[in-house]
Amino acid sequence: MKFKCNQTLPERAIHIALKGPDGGCQRGDGSGCFIASNVATTPGDMTERGCTYAGCRGVVGGPVKDAIQLTHGPIGCAFFSWGYRPHLADSDFHIKYTFVSDMNETNIVFGGEKKLLQCIIEASREFPDAKAVFVYNTCSTALIGDDGRDVAKQAEELIGKPVVFFECEGFRGVSQSMGHHVGNETIFRQLVGSVEPEGDFSRAINIIGDYNIKNDLRTFEYLFEAIGVRILTRFTGNVSVDDLKIMHKAALNVVHCQRSATYIAEMMRDKYGTPYIDVTLWGIKNMSQALRDTAAFFGLEAEAEEVIERELARIQPKLDHYRQRLQGKTVFIYQGGPRVWHWIELLRELGMETMTAATTFGHDDDYQKIFRQLKEGALVVDNPNVPEIEEILRDRRPDLFISGNKEKYVAYKMGVPFVNGHTYDTGPYAGFVGMVNFARDIDKALHAPIWKTLRSRARPAPVAHHTTHGFEEVE
Amino acid sequence: MSSITIQDRAVAINPTRSCAPIGAMLANYGIHGAITINHGSQGCATYPRHQMARHFREPVEVATTSLTEKTTVYGGKSNLLAALKNIWERFHPTLIMVCSTCLSETIGDDIPGVIDEFLERHPEVTIPILSVKTPSYIGNHTTGFDNFLKEIAGNLPDRRKKKGETNGKINIIPGWVNPGDIRELKHMLREMGLNGLWITDYSETLDGGYYEPRPHFARGGTTVEELRSSSKSLATIALQRYVGGEAARIYERRYGVPAHVLTMPIGLANTDAFVDTLVEITDHVIPEALQVERARLLDALVDTHMFTTGLRVALYGDPDLLEGLVGLVAEMGMTPAYVLTAADTMPWAEHMVELTEELGVESEIILKGDLHELHKRIKARPVDLLIGHSKGKFIADAEGIPLLRVGFPVEDRFGYHRRSIVGYNGSTALVDEITNLVFERRASSIVSNTLVERGVEGPSYVPISLPNGNGKLV
């Protein structure tokens, strides 16, 4: 499989692979070796990747609802990461407010430690109800050697609440994936286990790696509760600082996003002996399996079967309706990482087949899971760039493209139906009821009348002739 | 009398501004077939792309040199060389603009030096490659836009100009505006029978149509050839003082093209100033169409004044936009109670004090301000209307105040990038929208064109400010 757009970029070949007839991997450079992932991006290839700060501030730390979200750096990092990711909670302080030490040139020259300390004090004075201050480091403050850890320690004594310093400067690592790791590690080190609550935690679980995008949690929390377990802490959707402090008390960690949050489950296993299970909370088979696996741990199998049966009876007629409308469609999924392999099965349950799969920051284990599930002839691309995405949309012509906001408008300009898998169009999409939302959105995307209008009525661009007013139509 | 406050807090809470690279990227979108390479961490390209996609609802493509730990130690030269090569070979753009970041500036990469080396190694590359300094720790998003315009003015225009040689055009530097604004300005020039040379023009590249097949480069944008000839224009008009004003002066100093630096043409007086300048440069008369549009704006101001006079308004955003808006707000009889910018430009603040004085309104001009500060002021003394970008929605929601969305970004509504707020037509649209926002907030019904106030018992409710015994507004 060779991309036309990669004629001058032979180094991209090892990131592209077809699933072979024997189930093996045929890589773009001709070898059978596995797809290369989690390595540095080719400069100037128009990658969609973000930075470590984005993975830490945007994904892991940002959803914590009662922490002051303070960026230590210049203004841009804080502005762009503010208020667009719908990691909802039952309060909205974390979405409405962003804080930044607003480093200017003088601060860069003379150091920003004093200013950071002052910022933490001022911010906590303005918002005394906040339970902690999360400080995110950026490229410039890391380069000038600000000792943020030390400042955080000083500040903690002064304000009397946790000051958590994340070393998530953007240039670390090769993608936002490093930021997830930093986020997990820092929260674990500084918060988890800092309080020892009394009580019975024998049936308490943590949901690890769900960020409550458009209230995803609402679609499955009640299912776990119905089988008789209690959710102690959500890492990190709709979570409070106090929840994080006691999460080590849980009897079991249920790990949903296995790229951005397995780290903390492993650290808890090693330190506290808390076992964890990997689950997928999207789709019928996977969601049911998640409930069964959780129930099996606590000896609640019968309860789980009852819940599953009751829930499926509720949604089955609706899913049947959509399956009949979606049958046989092909899909191109391009997500950050795990959602690709989380959704292959879900789409199959709706009668659709994933023929192209790509991730921004997936690691080897993500691609293993993707390859295992795909059909022969499916294409896999690691860290695809804009021309590659355009070529896939144009030449492989998927019936549906599932990706994020940036890619949405590329798909629309090329006339390809699109569903926003990052922040959802009208989610939530998780759990059983969420799957009906997902199916409904896919149905809307595929069958909206606009595509027929485009096919029958779209015209080529008018020949541009240069006038004094810029490009205009020839009359 | 108006006053100036410099916000004095180390931590910025809910800033009104973002950082420099996005300004340079946006301006570069106004050149047909141009591509931006952002020299820094991947986030420095991806975040602005995402922000622009949310505002313009268009594909936004910017390359990054993907700097990592290794490059912070050894420098980013090899990454930049590779990025230049890859962009050239894969896209064959008409121009490449390399903008810097905190990271590449702090490690001290010599971007112009690397570009020279690249051009030496690749003699087949004949397109211009510009370098713009855009570290986030200097200025704000408008700084990047302005630095880009200075780079264009200094490097692209043809220096070989015979005496008296002219292309018959007028350079227009709209500044940080929306595609709809550029289209309105084009309409005005067309009506005047004049030829504009737009520096730059993203009216179509960032507000494009659906075509099959999709063009290789987005339609529209000023061509590099046009920009080369901009040294031969009759004059340059910059419509924002801080975004493009300096570039206009570069045209005057280097190429002898007279510079006219104006206030953003929002409202009657500001638009008149723009039209008068066009007349002054060219001796063309004001055409019938513009005279009618002007009269229509006056008519709209008359029709609405009973509902707008005396209202208190809070405005926030970029200095140039605020300066233009204050003109219109005053013409509508409203008081620009708080005028808040994140910028730190005292000359602007002093100018705003003079301007509000002339307009007969009293304002607090707040420099280095953020939205948290504005919110505190509004809590202490409410306003009837907020004017600014989408991030003010948190104040609007909390206080139940209508928000007129203008500027960048407007990410929570569709189509604001298509609207125009400049010229006579744009101003008329704003007058209508402001009045309607006030209606929707206050009116339970509108009977015989009269507002029936919502939730008001008896005649005691006085929605506007009245002077008390000390002559101060209460």
Topology:
The complex is a heterodimer of chains A (475) and B (474).
Chain A: E1 16-19, E2 25-27, H1 52-61, E3 67-72, H2 75-80, H3 93-96, E4 99-100, H4 105-110, H5 113-126, E5 132-137, H6 139-143, H7 148-159, E6 163-166, H8 177-190, E7 204-210, H9 217-227, E8 230-236, H10 241-245, E9 252-255, H11 262-272, E10 276-278, H12 284-298, H13 301-326, E11 330-335, H14 339-349, E12 353-359, H15 364-373, E13 379-382, H16 386-396, E14 400-403, H17 405-413, E15 418-420, H18 431-447, H19 450-457, E16 465-467, E17 470-472
Parallel strand pairs in A: 3-4, 3-5, 5-6, 7-8, 7-9, 9-10, 11-12, 11-14, 12-13, 14-15
Antiparallel strand pairs in A: 1-2, 1-13, 16-17
Chain B: E1 3-6, E2 12-13, H1 20-28, E3 34-38, H2 43-56, E4 63-64, H3 69-74, H4 77-91, E5 95-99, H5 102-106, H6 111-121, E6 129-132, H7 141-155, E7 170-173, H8 179-191, E8 196-198, H9 224-228, E9 235-238, H10 245-255, E10 259-261, H11 268-282, H12 288-308, E11 312-316, H13 319-331, E12 335-340, H14 346-359, E13 364-367, H15 371-380, E14 385-388, H16 393-399, E15 403-405, H17 423-442, E16 443-447, E17 450-453
